[in-house]
Write a structure and sequence with these properties.
The structure is a homodimer of 417-residue chains.
Chain A (H helix, E strand, L loop, with lengths): L20 H20 L3 E2 L5 E3 H4 L5 H4 L4 E3 L5 E4 L4 H10 L1 H4 L4 E9 L11 E10 L4 H17 L6 E6 H8 L9 H8 L7 H10 L4 H13 L4 H12 L7 E3 L13 E6 L8 E5 L3 H4 L7 E7 H10 L11 E3 L7 H13 L4 E3 L7 H10 L4 E4 L2 H6 L2 E5 L5 E4 L1 H8 L2
Parallel strand pairs in A: 1-5, 7-8, 12-13, 12-14
Antiparallel strand pairs in A: 2-4, 3-4, 5-6, 6-11, 7-9, 9-10, 10-11, 14-15, 15-16
Helix pairs in contact in A: 1-6, 6-11, 9-10
Main location (chains A, B): cytoplasm
Family (chains A, B): Belongs to the class-II aminoacyl-tRNA synthetase family.
Organism (chains A, B): Candidatus Collierbacteria bacterium CG10_big_fil_rev_8_21_14_0_10_44_9
Chain lengths: 417, 417
């Protein structure tokens, strides 16, 4: 570190992260698997810019959220803002390219979004959002497809115990409407009910009483909503979802799930991993949102997946196998044998094996092994004079320290697990 | 489009782009191939944040470039800036995590960078940079590895005719130094010489005379630099590069290649595609840059690849095969047969086939075929009562309009090309 360097220069901004190779590899792996599942369900990728006109984003998320939008004036005097979510830019895309996209547009989007929030454990200012939506259909198959792709993403990642809790906004509204008064909206009642996953029935009843309900009505409201059955709409969706392969035990009707109140119009759901607190994202049907954001009048159903949370859960369960991208280090026995190592590296790479070539021919072999170890490269290849004479290589397993001498073609088959 | 929408809302900012599925698919495909080649050469992924302290970035790229950095004050009063390149943040990373990264860190980085430049054809304000560097080695193998991974990226993308023009900064300096005077630096002479790829010898000679050289010296300088041979350093690197698999015909010594003057210290190179103007990126050795940026004193060699330019060339040569992510649309014959379609969609997906399920069971079959056509989905599957009775499906090729009736297992093998 030079004396010209300021301490501050050495830091990332709070809430922003560097991903060094081990973490970046893990994240890339998870992302690639998610992408594969999206595409297996016919979802197509979309990308929108990091910067948009501030006017597009502000006023769309509510006054509180507006404060969390990174916005500024650029050198051309334009008010610009960093992407805050992927829904508003997509509403713009749906307006701008209506003819190209057509009906039945199903897209996924995996991009960073930016939120000037107070950073805290698990909450970042730059984070990956991972959304999928089907636009232009109100059919229950569309809802079920969304549940299915969500379930299979987690199943394919190894989280086979994911539970999808689901509900229908109509259930909440029709069952709680009778308790609404001029002073107490049904939405306010739902807000209290939504707390049942963290509070006792008594606590929620107390809150409802404090909001103005009689004790009798508060209890009636609570009892009735807890005993309600899935709506016909929900039953339809669930049948289709099961035919699409979601096992019944991974689906759980939760009549008190509210999932925000703002824009959902039908089925809503949240993904929960047993043993982990909170959800790993969720979604639902929002048939009026795109229009209210300034887009066309187009029904939609979809979800946002908590990418960081999902990676954390996978890591805590050791479900991301410690992948070493680089399978083998080709060492250089001595400067005069360098050419042999180059040839072997070239053969391995031609065979599709991820191969690092040690760059400094004058370094001792021991130093080269330590280098591979430090980088968690599992194998090293040594080509000394003996090996050259016999036209073979020595393949050393750096974990078990076993070594075998074999033809280069054999080494290739051994490394090609 | 609703009346609440402002015209401006519907636009991306100039110099910023949406990538709709066809373009995004092509870009993702190219990116995945580049990633694969990087990893085959032992390079590992690194990611740094989009936002940094402005102080880290400003003053690093020169006064002109500083004006192109998107910087602003965030809500916490911090001066922040959008990533302008990947080298300065990496210099920070090299300082901050010296112990973790160690010697021989070879990383690739593929991220957007932001430049408040005047947008014009092929020049964007948000663009993908794609860098790879080896840190901590001065050995010629490191230089050759950089040339090799660069060559193989293009070869694997199908651009087998890529020509790597190379030179050594030492050649330029030692050969032109004799013509430098107190009023005319060797760098100024090099700057003129660098124009030989676009200007005639006469034009460059005229420029050198205008800069103060005598006509005799200008011609001598031009003749001498054009006739010079590769330095021993360069010969070494080239031998290694060829042993690593770069064919000789893809390498071209160009003693007048200068590639900017600011920070290269040894081998320099540029990739050119025959028949295309300009370069598709390049790089070289820069042993002092990381320290001058405030990082540790660490030698480095690497390159930046022109991602947008490369995608353009691939598209113009039809080298990105029109990939359809979604292989088949499962149609719904009639609402009462919906369940059969669901089952088939589930089987296809289980077999790893990218399958879209048509969402609206009441739409006519013809409409469903048109939908698949519009999305360029090449196949459709039909399951009518006949098919159900015989436990088969009809597979329709939407390009040739051929259709065959076969077992679902046979349909799967047909689709699994």
């Amino acid at each position: 570190m030079t004396s010209t360097m300021q301490k501050q220069n050495l830091q990332t901004l709070k809430g922003f992260r560097d991903f060094l190779p081990p973490e970046k590899r893990a994240r890339d792996l998870v992302m690639a698997k998610i992408k594969t599942t999206f595409e297996r369900f016919g979802f197509e990728p979309l990308e929108t810019p990091t910067l948009e006109y501030a006017e597009l984003l502000l006023g769309k998320y509510g006054a509180e959220a507006d404060k969390l939008v990174y916005s500024f004036e650029d050198r051309g005097g334009r008010q610009v803002a960093l992407r805050y979510d992927q829904t508003v830019p997509t509403a713009r895309v749906l307006s701008q390219y209506q003819n190209e996209l057509g009906k039945g547009f199903r897209r996924y989007q995996i991009q960073p979004v930016f939120r000037a929030e107070k950073p805290q454990k698990g909450r970042y200012r730059e984070l990956i959002q991972c959304d999928a939506d089907i636009f232009g259909s109100t059919a229950s198959i569309a809802d079920a497809e969304i549940l299915a792709v969500y379930y299979f993403i987690y199943r394919d990642l190894g989280l086979t115990d994911l539970v999808i809790e689901f509900n229908d906004r109509e259930i909440l509204i029709s069952n709680l409407m009778p308790y609404a008064t001029q002073d107490l909206t049904v939405f306010s009642i739902i807000q209290s009910i939504d707390k049942l996953d963290k509070q006792t029935v008594e606590e929620v009843a107390t809150e409802l009483v404090a909001k103005g309900l009689s004790a009798i009505n508060a209890n009636k409201a609570l009892t009735s909503i807890q005993q309600v059955n899935p709506s016909p709409n929900l039953v339809n969706i669930l049948n289709v979802a099961q035919e699409l392969g979601i096992p019944q035990e991974n689906l759980k009707f939760n009549p008190t799930l509210a999932r925000g109140l703002d824009y959902y119009t039908g089925m809503i759901f949240e993904g929960k991993i047993p043993g982990e607190s909170g959800s790993v994202g969720g979604g639902g049907r929002y048939d009026k949102l795109i229009e209210s954001l300034g887009g066309p009048n187009i029904p939609a159903v979809g979800f946002g997946l908590g990418f960081d949370r999902t990676v954390e859960v996978l890591e805590s369960r050791n479900l991301i196998s410690v992948i070493t991208l680089t399978q083998v280090l080709v060492t250089i026995f001595s400067p005069d044998l360098q050419g042999e190592s180059l040839k072997v590296a070239q053969s391995l790479r031609s065979a599709g094996i991820n191969t690092e070539l040690y760059p400094d021919p004058s370094d001792k072999l021991d130093k080269q092994f330590k280098y591979a170890d430090k980088k968690s490269i599992p194998y090293a290849i040594v080509i000394g004079q003996d090996e050259v004479d016999k036209n073979v290589v020595t393949l050393k397993n750096l974990v078990t320290h076993e070594q075998t001498t074999l033809l280069i073609s054999e080494a290739i088959s051994n490394l090609k697990i």
